[in-house]
Amino acid sequence: MNMSFGQIDKDSRLVQQTLTLTSLAILKVDIDERHRNYIDYLAQFVLSVLASHKPEFVTDTKVAEFLEKDFGLMVPAKAVQHVLRKLARDGYVKKQNEVFYPASELPDTGIAVKRLEAASQIQRVYDALCQFSLSIQPDPNWSDTDASKAILGFLARFTVDCLKSYVFNTALPRILDTGSKELYIVSRFLQHCHETNRPLFEDFIVLVKGQMYANALTCPDLESLEKKFNHVSFYLDTPLVLSLLGLQGKGFGQAAEELITLLRDLKGNIGVFSHIVDETKGVLRYAARHFDDPQSTSRILREMRNSGITLSDLLVYIDQLPERLSSLHVRVKTTPEYVSDFQIDETTFQGALEDEIHYPRVHAIKNDINSVRSIYVLRQGVSPARLEDSVAVFVTSNTKLAKTAFEFGKTHNSSKEVSSVITDYSLANVAWLKAPMKRPSLPEKETLAFCYAALEPSKELFRKYVEKMELLRSTGNISEQDHAILRLSPLAQRELMDLTLGDEQALTGHGLREILDRVKESLVSDQKILAAADRAIFEGQLTNANLSIEAQDKALQEADDEKQRLLEDQRSIVLTASRRAKFFSKVFTGSVMAFFSVLLLSGSIVGAGLIPDTDSIAPVIKTLLPILACISVGWGWYSWLTGKTVREVTQKIEYSVTLWIYSWLTGQPTLPD
Q1: How far is CA 474 from the centre of its chain?
Q2: Contacts of 326 (CB under 8 A, 6+ apart)
Q3: In the chain, how many H helices and how many E strands?
C-alpha cells in the first residue's frame, strides 16, 4: 500500500497525540482508584519504560525522553530523580557510583491493558466530536487527527502558569496552537454533551482530570504537593469578586465558589483589598447607571439581563458588598500603606503592563499596580521557594497580568520563585492536586467555565460586530428594530459565534445580514412554538376545567341524592313518632274516659242502693257521691255555656297529649301535617 509523506506525517501525529490522551486517561483512572501519591504513580510509568526499552543504565534525562516518547508526557528530570531514588529503595534499580542500573526482573504494571481501555474511550470522543463538527462547519470534515489536535489544544488551556516551581506549565507535548475555531467547536461540543449526553461528557472530563493530574508531574518537588496553605493569604481580583457574586454567569460563579471552598479546605485565607472593593462598586455603579441603556452591552450587563437581575438587586449588591463577601468567607483587608523598603518600580511595571494589556480606563491599571505592590508589602521581603510559603498572592483571571507580574518579579527576591500574581485556574489546579477526592467536581466546573468563556465573542470580535452593525444602521440597511435585535438578543451573539467560530476575520456585512435573518427566523419559530405551547396549555386547562365541572356536577347530584335520602329518612322518623304519639294519646285518653265511666257507674250503683252500706265502703260513698255530683253539675253548666260535647273535649285532650309525647320523642314543637 502506497502512502504519501503527508499521510504518514498525519498518521504519526495522530498516534503521538492519542498516546498523550490515553496517558491522561490512565492517569485519572489509576490515581482515582488507587489513591497513590504522585511519586508512586509516576513510578509506574517509569517502570513501564524501563521494561520496554531495557537501557543498560538509567539517567533522569533518558527516562524523561522515554516518557515523552512512550506516553506523550513531558516530565522534568528532577521529578524523575525523585522516582529513581524511590525505585532504588524498592529494589527495582540499583545505584552504583551515582549511576542507576535497572534490575533484571521488573514488575508488570498493566499499562498495556489500561491503554486499550483508554483508547476505546478516547475513540468514542473522537467519533462524537467529528460528527458534531459537521453541524457547526460542514466543510471541511474533521478527521481523528483534527479531533485529537483540537482536544489537546483545548486541554492545553488547563495549565499551571507563573509558578517557577513548575518547570513546564503543562505535561502535554508541544503542538501548534489551536485557533479560536477549534476551541469554539470543542466548547460547543462539551456544552452539548453536558446537556444531552452525560456519559460522553464524563469521558471528556476524564481527560481534563488527567491533564490536571499530569500538571503535578511537571513539578520537580512533588512532595510539596502534600503541604497545605495554612500560612498563605489569597487576595481576589475584581472579576473574581464579580464571579463569586454570581454576576459573571453561572459557569464562572460555580468555578469561583469551588475554588474558595477548596482553599478553605486547605486552611488558606481568602481576602480582598479595600481598593478592589471600591473598584468592584465602581463597576456595579456603572452597570446601574446604564442598566436601561440599550446601547450599553458590557458583559456584566448582558449577564444581568439574561439572568433576570433587577436594578434594585444591583443597588443592594452595592450597598451590602462587604457583608456579602463576608458571607462567602472573603474578608475585606485595608490596602497596605506604602513601605519604602518593599516599594517596587511602579513606572517600569506600568510600562510592562501597557505593553501587554489594553486598559480602557486609567484607574484600572492603577488598581492592578496597587494590588501587586501590596503583595510585596505583605511579604515583607520573604523569599518563598514554593507557593505554600509565599505569605500573600494576588489571584486574577487575567492571564496577561499574571505573566507580566511573573516576568517583572524575576528581579525581586520575594517573587523570583513564586510570582506575586497567579491565575485563578493555576491556583485551582495546584489546590485540587493536594486534595482531588475532596472536590471531585472542580475539573468539571472549570471546564464548563472555560467553555462558557470560549462561547462568548472576544472583545475584538464584539467591537467589530458593533461597528458593522452601526454602519448598516447609519446607511439605512437595517432598521432601528433590527439594530436592537442584533445588539441585545443573546441569540444574535450565539449566531455571531456560530457564523464566525470566534474568528474576527470571518465577520462581514453580508454575515451580519445572515445573523439577522437567522435570529428573526428563530424568533418567529420560537413564537410559533410558544403559541402552540400556550394553545396546548389552554386546551389542557379547558379539558381540566370541563372535567372539574363534570366532577362538581356529579358531586352535587350525589349530594342532592344524599339530601333526599336523609329527608326521606327524616320524614319516616317523623311519621313514626307521630303515629306513636297518637297511639299513646288515644290509649291515655281512653284510659281516662274509662276511669271516669267506671267512677260514674259506681256512683250510680251506690246511689241506687244496689251495694250494701257497710262500714268499709260508707266513707268512700259519702266522699265519692258529692264529687261525682259536682262533676256532673259542672260538666252540665260547661256544656250548656260552651256548647262543647264530651267528644270534643276528649279530642282536645287527646291532641294535647299527642303533641306533648311527639315533642318529647323528636324535640319538634308542632305535629307534622
Answers
A1: 43
A2: 332
A3: 25, 7
* pLDDT given for residue 8 in this prediction: 39
Question: So what's the pLDDT on residue 544?
Answer: 78
Beta bridge partners of 94: 101
Q: What are phi and psi of 453, to 5 degrees?
A: -65, -40
Q: Are 122 and 150 in contact (CB under 8 A)?
A: no
Rounded to 10°, the helix 362-379/346-356 angle is: 130
Domain segments of the chain as ranges: 5-113, 115-216, 227-438, 528-666
CA distance 228 to 388: 7
Angle between helix axes 5-34 and 111-136 (nearest 10 degrees) is 120
pTM: 0.70
Q: Where is 383: in which H helix or E strand?
A: none
Q: Which residues are 333's β-sheet partners? A: 273
pLDDT beneath 50, residues of the chain: 1-10
User: C-alpha cell of 405?
Assistant: 507580574
CB atoms within 10 A of CB 96: 8
| Radius of gyration in angstroms for the set of CA atoms belonging to the chain, rounded to a whole number | 49
- At 499, list the grid cell: 457564523
Q: List, for residues 197-251, the tens digit of each pLDDT value.
A: 999 988 888 888 888 777 777 776 666 677 889 889 999 999 999 999 888 888 8
Secondary structure E strands in 362-489? 392-396, 421-423
| Cα–Cα dist 348/368, whole Å | 13
Model pLDDT, residue 369: 94
CATH architecture under which domain 227-438 falls: 3-Layer(aba) Sandwich (3.40)
Query: Hey, what's the cell of 46?
Result: 517509569
What are the tens digits of pLDDT across the range 375-402?
Answer: 999 998 888 888 888 899 999 999 899 9
Task: Specify the pLDDT at position 144.
Answer: 86
CB half-sphere exposure, 211, CA atoms < 13 A = 26
Name the CATH topology of 5-113.
Arc Repressor Mutant, subunit A (1.10.10)
- CA distances 277 to 309, 543, 669, Å, are 20, 56, 86
Q: Rounded distance, CA 301 to CA 98, Å?
A: 63
> Quick one: which H or E segment has residue 378?
helix 362-379
- Angle at alpha carbon of residue 394, lines to 154 and 449, rounded to 5°: 30
CA distance 288 to 298: 12
pLDDT at 451: 84
Residue closest to 255 by CA, chosen among 265, 273, 240:
240
Q: Cα–Cα distance between 462 and 493 in angstroms, integer?
A: 9
**Which residue type, as a one-letter code, is found at position 621?**
I
Single-letter amino acid, residue 303: E
